[in-house]
Amino acid sequence: MIESKTFVLAGGCFWCLDAAYRVLSGVINVDSVYTGGATVGPTYEEVCSGKTGHVESVSVTFDAKVLPEGVVLDAFFTMHDPTQLNRQGNDVGTQYRSAMFYSDEDQKVLFEKAKERASKWWPSPVVTSIEPLNEIYKAEELHQNFFAKNPSQAYCLAVALPKVMKIRSEFSRYIK
After folding, report:
1. What angle do CA 141, 147, 149 make, to 5 degrees?
2. What's the angle, vertex CA 31, arms to CA 175 and CA 126, rounded to 5?
3. Using CA atoms, how far apart are residues 12 and 1, in angstroms rounded to an integer?
4. When you count CB atoms within 10 A of the terminal residue's CB, does the N or C end of the chain come out lower?
5. Active site residues
6. Which residues neighbour 88 within 8 Å (Cβ) at sequence distance 6 or greater?
7. Residue 164 to residues 47, 72, 119, 131: CA-CA distances in angstroms?
8. Are 72 and 23 within 8 A, CB to CB?
9. What burial letters (b/e) apply to 142-153, b meaning 16+ CB within 10 Å?
10. pTM reported for the whole predicted model
11. Cβ atoms of residues 163 and 170 within 8 Å
């Protein structure tokens, strides 16, 4: 029997997180989504403007019997740099902030513990915000599973692929 859980996480461009999570066993679904802002039904262009308050995020649904919650969260803190405020590399703005969106108090505690673990791995302070999950909006279809659809695209090769390879290396026990 599947023990389905969903986390909504943001760590820079959602294409990278989407690609990295898809290599893990137990991941049932990954959706690229927008959350954390005030605009109703934002578009990619609106989110990229930085004016909506939304962040590019992923909604990761996984089987906790196959892929433990802690592994999902430790992978999150491995696949991006949680010490960069409102940016990931050349992607700059609040729409690229590192954030975890909790759906209930249990998730909030779980996220706080994961952030505390991660703070021991990084030499600089972890700035990942832990925020209540509000409305999420599924990103446009072209952003769903972007890496698989565009494996030779320059951004995918330069930014997403190294993150996928890092997850494959550091979480080899959980690779599909």
Report:
1. 60
2. 70
3. 33
4. N
5. 13
6. 11, 12, 13, 16, 80, 81, 96, 98
7. 24, 14, 22, 26
8. no
9. ebbbbbeeeeee
10. 0.96
11. no
